[in-house]
# Entry
Amino acid sequence: MDHLACFTPGDLGSSSRAPDLGAYRWRLLAQGDSWFSNAKSKLDAHANLLQELVFPDPACAVNCAGTGDALAHMVDLESAPDFVRLLSAPDSPVWSGILLSVGGNDLIDAAKTPAHDGAGNEVPLHLRLLRRQTEWGPPSAGVARYFSEPGWATYAEYLRTNVRHLLTLRDQGPSAGKPVFMHCYAVPMPRPAGSEDLELGARGPWLYPALKAYALPGADWAAISRLMVFHLAQLLKSMAADTQQFPGLHVFDSTSVPLAPAAPGSSGSSGDWHNEIHLNHSGSFKIARAWSEHIQKVLNPPVPVGRHR
# Structure
């Protein structure tokens, strides 16, 4: 098994280091959030999923995620011109598949939406994921009592619309119909563990201040995080199952991979987590190796018994 060879769009245009894409059996185009980021400080601290993907035959990826948080929001395609060009331009390469890491940052931002805006006006439930204490449901609902289903419906439609747009871009170019691979996210432990990214400045934590601002019981934080991440996983899997609206979409359920959770209240690397929402090297290894198998089965499906290639 060989690690995925990773290049950048800049490498393709370089006279001195341009890779020979023809030397690889599988050529992938990658774009995503910080789980794919090329930032050196991120790679040194907690790696990324692409680094840990492995294949039985030579495979490469041109990673457009860059050094920042490209596609921090799905609508940020305008800030990802290399990805759009390499995906949809008539003269772009024919990719074996597209790797996407998207939706997680949007989910966190939706959870961070406050109950009141800067002017003190109440933000309606359909525009946020969490409920104020006076809006909580009955205790019999469990942690779902804190969750805004109207807000979730808004987020879900937003994500569906933008993934459909990405698939449309794919089908405008030479890679029309090629598989698009997305992963779900692992369940983070809300805790005071931010990042000290030398390129982006200190950031985070992310969920921890949001749950505190809504005065949600600390004993329920882990379950609230799990509820939101499982909602996202179910949404992504339902999209992949809808082959008419989302043709060629393949979703790997990362929630099925056993990870060592971070210790509640910890502020540094803990378990398989580098900070509150980013995996460390061991966590990236576990998710990526399982995702590799999922991708391989699509790119190189097993030959039925009695048949030859």
Remarks:
- The chain has one domain: 2-299.
- The mean pLDDT is 90.
